[in-house]
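[Meeting: bench + compute handoff]

Bench side (C.D.) handed over the final construct sequence. Compute side (W.E.) agreed to return the predicted structure before the next meeting so the bench team could plan truncations. Sequence as handed over:
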Amino acid sequence: MLAGLIPDDGSDRETLQRRLLSGRYSEVRMLFFLGKDVCRWIGQCLEWVEREPQLQSLELCSQSFAGLLTADPPEAVRQKLLQWGVADYKSIFSRAIGLNSMFAEPPAFDQLAEEFLRSYHRFADALYHCYMDLQPHKAIGNRNFQFQLYASGEYSKLLESEWSAEE
């Protein structure tokens, strides 16, 4: 409505601006929490590397796994993301990592500048690039590093079936 691309609903410009910023703030929060999950996964990958003697000499770091997720995930992961309607997974995951590298907790709405909210995606992209440039890292690919991706309910069912099999 602000850009004139859809019909006006009678809302004044200030109300439309508030709606836009509120929506952007929700996107920032969702990406922040996704980033927490992704960073937790990266941490688990690093723990796994520490336990595998043949991997310890590769000098893998968090950026190695962030690059794997954003640039070269396994084909099965790509397909699952596409089935879920996530076409631009690279931007989503990289922005989630970028925002999580900046904020320890999701910032309150009134702590973010309007300019940041309007263009948070550009800031998050830049933060991801800063994160990736923090230290030299070995790039890894899906040929040597396979993993799966599960939705919460899907993972719960998987755990339940494994526990049932153990009983």
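W.E. noted at the follow-up: The first helix runs from residue 13 to 51. C.D. will use this when planning the next construct.
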